[in-house]
Specification:
Helices cover about 85% and strands about 0% of the residues. With about 375 residues, the chain is an all-alpha fold. The radius of gyration is 20 Å and the shape is globular.
């Protein structure tokens, strides 16, 4: 019975983790009314949870193999109680940065499920299973939609404190329902890293995920503040628009995994990178709000399919070193979410427009298109 519960339980774990991960960026319009944040530091505040959430994915993937998903999820949710409480009590910009940094633990849990869940299923279903787990990205949508609503009723500090209850619930759920007998991999991490470090496929998949998941994370944290400042939406409307972006990407990720189980993964990735470049071109034209949202949602569909496809290939290529391989690829995906908000802010500061930053992203996507076509030829 425990084994049957792991897919829904760990997917719910990821939803909860990602809800916590983006609480700071989702409530930023409200927080700015209470705490003075330098205008040139707003992008840093929204991006800072991404840093630790990315770097920790490598040790979290290894620990999931070594100690089991139950232990890692339990420890993570318990540890998150501290930064969530600190965020709810923050009164300065510096305190936002400190608490936001440690919220990154919530983003790091992604590598736990993608390492653990394939143990319960045959290889032919790994794309779909990891796609279902990746549906946990929905957590970011729930927070971007619900947190501003809760802030209207309770104030932003009260809204943050609700997440303490959420974390306590998931500590109890994992304690009761987590698989105590999950198969363990005890090979030392250094030995596993030596085995996979020289494999070019690991770094190419990391690059692909840097673009697909990075774009997803970057726009998740960037859109609420951009839509309120540039298109003058209120916080709730901006949160709803961002939630649609996230829900689309999370739902399509399941489809991406399913398609990757049945079709050529590199053809799928080639289509993904074409769509990302096209979406970036639309945004660079700085159109009215309807067209801008159209470009955003095209990017969300491409991100979802790309994310699902990459995590079909990782367990396929690195079955025996799944922990660190998943950790490295997902780490680069998380880091991919850190840089675009900073690049877009720098572009706006230097040129008065986001267009140069978006053009750079489009060119990056086209370079990945060429690489995916080359990988398709090599796979033959």
């Amino acid at each position: 019975m425990e084994k049957r519960l792991q897919l829904p339980l760990q997917t719910a774990d990821l939803i909860a983790g990602f809800m916590v991960w983006v609480v700071l960026s989702s409530l930023l319009p409200s927080i700015k009314q209470d705490i003075a944040i330098p205008s040139d530091a707003i992008a840093l505040v929204t991006a800072i949870p991404v840093v630790l959430g990315s770097v920790l994915r490598v040790p979290f993937g290894y620990c999931a193999n070594r100690f089991g998903a139950r232990t890692v999820f339990l420890a993570s949710f318990a540890a998150l109680l501290v930064p969530v409480w600190l965020l709810s009590e923050a009164t300065t910009y510096q305190e936002l940065l400190v608490s936001g940094t440690f919220l990154g633990i919530a983003g790091a849990v992604f590598s736990v499920g993608v390492t653990s869940l394939p143990k319960y299923y045959p290889k032919e279903r790994h794309g779909f299973v990891n796609g279902v787990y990746g549906f946990g990205n929905m957590g970011t949508a729930l927070t971007t939609w619900l947190a501003p609503v809760a802030a209207l009723a309770l104030g932003w500090r009260g809204a943050v404190k609700l997440y303490l209850v959420l974390l306590a619930v998931f500590v109890i759920l994992n304690l009761a329902l987590g698989d105590r007998s999950e198969p363990r991999v005890k090979t030392p991490i250094v030995q596993q890293m030596k085995q996979i470090g020289a494999d070019a496929r690991l770094w190419i998949l990391s690059l692909f995920y840097f673009v697909t998941f990075g774009a997803f994370v970057a726009l998740t944290v960037y859109l609420p503040n951009f839509l309120t400042s540039h298109y003058l939406l209120d916080g709730v409307s901006a949160g709803a628009a961002t939630s649609i972006f996230i829900v689309t990407a999370a739902t399509v990720r399941v489809l991406g995994g399913w398609l990757a189980d049945r079709f050529d993964c590199y053809k799928l990735l080639a289509c993904v990178f074409v769509a990302l470049a096209a979406g970036a071109a639309v945004l660079a034209l700085a159109p009215g709000l309807p067209a801008y949202l159209g470009g955003i949602y095209l990017i969300s569909i491409a991100c979802g399919i790309g994310n699902g496809t990459v995590f079909k290939l990782v367990p396929l290529y690195f079955t025996k070193q799944a922990g660190p391989a998943n950790g490295i690829v997902s780490m680069w995906g998380g880091l991919g979410g850190f840089f675009p908000p900073l690049v877009l802010s720098a572009s706006m500061a230097a040129f008065g427009t986001n267009a140069p930053g978006l053009a750079a992203f489009g060119l990056f996507a086209l370079a990945c298109l060429a690489l995916s076509l080359k990988m398709k030829q090599s796979s033959r």
